[in-house]
Structures are given as C-alpha cells and as structure tokens.
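Section 5: illustrative case.
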C-alpha cells in the first residue's frame, strides 16, 4: 500500500560557521529566504529532509556550492538603516513627495495627521522590499495648515512636519 499522507519538507543550509534549518512546509517551494547574511567566496552545503506520518527520509549526501557575488550594484543601493528623509517641496501646494529608506523588507505604514492629531489619510500600508522609496501626497481636498507624516516600519517610528499653503 502506498502512503499518500502530506509530506513536510525541511531545508538545512550549513557551512563552517552557519547551520540553519528552514521549515519549508507541506508544498514544494523553489525560492527560500535565509535570515543570516551569507559571505562571499564561502562554501555552503544544503540538504533536504522529508517527513510524513509514516516515515522520515534524509538526504543521502548534501549538495554544496560556493557563493560568488559578481556585482555589488544591488548591495550598494540598499540603505543601512531606516530613515524618514523628509518631504519636498515644503511648504507645498498641493502635491509633495515624501522620501524614506528601508534597509530590509518591512511592513510599512505612512500616515498623514492634522495638527490636532487626527488621521487625514494613509499613503502606504503594505510590505515593501528594501531600498530608497518615495510616495506623493496630493492635498487638493484638505485645508491649508501644518500636517504631520509618520512612518512605521518594523520597530522604527519617525514623525516629521510639513506645511500646506494654498
């Protein structure tokens, strides 16, 4: 009798200084994210373990590879820290651009508040990849005055002010 119960996969990535196991789940995946930083010109090995209600199957021998970074263009364009750059122009009428930086993939929320602290609008509420970002706010339908914009990304929170002059 053939067992068709769900198979759970684990991917183990290891080297001389790293040993981590990723819980892949009950389906095949071809793209994995590793939380640790991998080192250029370092050899790594990987192996897969599959398990179900009946048995566990281990990899006979690991497969190995050497990480070689051919270009650092993408690495250079990733900020080192979270940052809310500011908006321009400031003062503005009626459109301004808010710039911010994300050092890693994050759940990002950018919210506009009026002077008494009431939420006016949310410009961004999504998961975004690392990088240098910007978003525009069209304030055509709100009155002149001072407004605050706030970014929340992971544990990072920062607020700045801007002035709308009509």
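Designed sequence:
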């Amino acid at each position: 009798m053939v067992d068709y119960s769900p198979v759970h996969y684990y991917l183990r990535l290891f080297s001389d200084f790293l040993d981590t196991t990723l819980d892949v789940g009950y389906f095949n995946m071809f793209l994995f994210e590793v939380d640790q930083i991998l080192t250029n010109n370092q050899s790594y090995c990987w192996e897969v373990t599959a398990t179900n209600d009946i048995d566990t199957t281990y990899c006979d021998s690991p497969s190995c590879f050497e990480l070689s970074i051919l270009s650092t263009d993408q690495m250079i364009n990733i900020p080192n820290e979270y940052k809310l750059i500011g908006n321009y122009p400031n003062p503005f009428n009626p459109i301004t651009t808010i710039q911010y930086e994300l050092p890693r993939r994050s759940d990002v929320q950018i919210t506009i508040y009026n002077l008494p602290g009431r939420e006016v609008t949310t410009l961004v509420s999504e998961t975004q990849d690392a990088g240098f970002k910007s978003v525009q706010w069209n304030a055509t339908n709100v009155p002149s005055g001072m407004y605050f914009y706030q970014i929340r990304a992971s544990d990072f929170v920062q607020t700045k002010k801007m002035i709308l002059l009509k």
